[in-house]
Amino acid sequence: MLPRLPLDDRSFAEIVQHSRRLIPKRVPEWTDENAHDPGMTILELFAWLTEMQRYFISRVPDKNRRKFLDLLGVAPADTQSAEALIQFTNVTEQTTLPRGTKLMAEDQMFETDTTVKLVPLSLDRIITRTEREANDVTASNIHSDVVYYAFGADAKQSSKLYISFDRELISGEQITLNIELMQPGNEGQERHASELLDPLLAASVITPSSRLSWKVYGYDEATETAAWLPLDIVRDETLHLTLSGKMTFRVGASMRAVTVHPASDRARYWICCTLEEPGYEMPPRIRQLMLHTTIAVQRDTLCEVIDLPFHGGEQTSIVSDTYLSVFGKIRVQVQNIDFSWTYWQEEETSDMKSDHLTKQRSKLYSVKRSPGKDYLEVHFGGSVDGVMPEAGQMIRIIASMPKFDLLRLVGRSNGLPGQSFDLYDVPCKKKDAIKLQVGESEATGELKWFDWTRVDDFDHSGPGDRHYVYDPVGRRIYFGNGERGAIPASCLEENICLIGCELGGGERGNVKSGLITEWVCNVQAENGIKVDNPFYAAGGSEAETLAETLQRAQTELKRTFRAVTDEDYETIARETPGAAVARVQAIPLYRPGLADYPRERAAGQVSVVVVPYSLSETPTPSAGFLQTVRKHIDSRRLITTEVHVIPPVYIKVTVHAVVVVEPQFIDEGERLVEQLRRLLRPLDGDDGSPGWTFGRAVYKGDIYNSLSGSNGVLFIQDLWLDAEGAHVKKSAGGDLILPPHGLVFSGSHEIELISSTHL
Which residue of 372, 491, 680, 747 has the fewest C-beta atoms within 10 A of its own C-beta? Predict the structure, then answer.
């Protein structure tokens, strides 16, 4: 029996009863509700039809639900791989680690996503200096769970961050420094690679709040003296220490050793970061400065393809620098004019008795690996003059693990519709984990190989579309029937071949810090380089179920994307990337400088007041912060609306009160002052209590209510308020009238306590 689903749990009897209750209201002249009445028969008939209709609607199959989601443009999320920040240490000689270098964290395989060039260099000392003090924070930098201020808690102009190295940097040498910051609002939380903004996107949407300059202490040839010289910044993903990221630089002059207090024991080679234009809402707090870092992804690539163009002319070889290219089994294909691929043969250089004429006519290549094992070079033409690829042809390197190379052939097509093949030995968890080629026989007996494309289903596939479906759960490949998707050509030999295969993904990849420590390749392990992940790996997730996809679709449909209402503007402002917004208020029909609001209104305009996270008592956004929020809102506003992103106006409120208390509370005036500070504050409290409402007047009744509710307070004998700030007014009754974008903060409250025994 099918389970009952909760679309509508009303039974036939309940529907009839509900309908009968509507009769006196809708049809008052209908007074006979007995069973013999024909109207009751019709009512019961439609009640039965309603129950049956809802019963069947509740049993919509999963296939239909997937189609409904497809109409909405929502697809179940695939398995995701975890990512971790990796650091290499104990580098004693220059080493290149190819992309895809395999590392282990217990039983989980990780691979680097970029080629890493390591040089023998390490950080020596780190000094922070303000106009008041200088601190050596080297020990804090070693421990990622201890943060320190880059420019002090105030981040004032001319504050400096000094970084020294254990050797002199060579002129023109490119160094990458990874800077991990504690982001505002994420105190105590791990940040990982998957949370970082794309550097190109961040640079286009974020305007830094401050401006920094980087210098190096070196020899100035113009003056023939040692001085602080500008550092050549190649790339700054941190945007002046606004975000975590990498900063790549190079030294343009010869460095000179110098002593920097308090690291006065000896001279060192220093670079210096100076805060030229202050404006940070939250002073940058550094978790760790690191050299030799990259991102590692939890996966195990068994086979991959690298497509490279062949330009012809004097070119006789191509170079690849991936891990599988260097350490794996290599096969080479050349693309034909019909976009098919043909395998070329690897020349056996040790076979000196081969027929040279045969070699000349053959399509041969040879493989050369560098002594350092960091790149692969493929030469064409053989040891004698042979066939060369034509200019403009694409060369494909298929690199695979030696054991997997024997498993790449999946099966043989029989030319019938609806074929499927099992992948028993390849537990791929992702839909896009495999890439597939199908061979077609030629008259010469050779096979031409065509790339096939993976699709979720064959609904949009035509008869000639080379499409296939891969089911990660059943580990099975499906082909079309000739109407929905092409049929693989029949062949007498195995012609279904994997050219790409990737394992990994899922929640198990979210390993703890300090677990990614082992090298898979013994050749790389012999270098003595140590590897570690200072932070958690995160971002790994299992494939989304249909129920989870439906729930996500409902959430996404409710998610605010277009700014129409006041709540939309506030929600979008809070989600601004790179801007930690603590509070926001949208004021419709208001523009800066409007004197008599709300009686005077600005048609088609809205002002968004933003308050950043800050250590200050009156958090004020910088011009860059306001520009960042404005650009984010501007891409989502209605085309006819003019948006102003403005800072709040702060009003300092000072309370003067004479309070009569019980004798035992005569010395607790500071407690009442603290209570007023909690009431008159711009930001929300740590306990979740809200800050002062934007533009809300400060009534004397608010103060009376706050003080009277305290223990020991009998009554308030006298009370008056003072205010300092722009656009604030005082009513005849002594209340403070704030502008619509005004917020209050506490002044030096004066509370005089009088014992009830002295009255």
Answer: 372
